[in-house]
Design goal:
The protein contains four helices and three strands. The protein is α+β, with helices and mostly antiparallel strands and 97 residues long. The chain has a single domain (2-90), classed as Winged helix-like DNA-binding domain superfamily/Winged helix DNA-binding domain (Arc Repressor Mutant, subunit A, Orthogonal Bundle), CATH 1.10.10.10. Helix 2 (14-23) crosses helix 3. The radius of gyration is 16 Å and the shape is globular.
């Protein structure tokens, strides 16, 4: 879900996405851990990829969101909101920290 959200903001390549996720508080995310997820998202038709020449290096594989990915992101975000709200309610109830 987080990868789709980043790609929905702007097309990105793997290392860039890992850096953005880390900068937003997901420090445990590594570049190597996201490539299998990107592959699955692409196989499901949620994202597409294209190559962009990189000065002084090999071309970079950028990912962009597809309409089905935008729809899936909305669905997952709604589910996440429900789970997050529920967890918040449980944490508030009965035990005062």
């Amino acid at each position: 879900m987080c990868l789709l959200a980043l790609i929905a903001e702007e097309s990105s390549y793997g290392y860039e996405m890992a850096s953005k996720l880390q900068a937003r508080g997901l420090e445990l995310v590594s570049e190597g851990s996201i490539y299998p997820l990107l592959s699955r998202l692409q196989k499901r038709g949620y994202i597409d990829s294209y190559l962009v020449e990189s000065p002084g290096g090999p071309p970079r594989k950028y990912y962009r969101i597809e309409p089905s990915g935008t729809e899936r992101l909305r669905h997952w975000a709604g589910e996440w909101s429900q789970v997050s709200d529920g967890v918040g309610e449980v944490l508030k109830g009965g035990h005062h920290v």
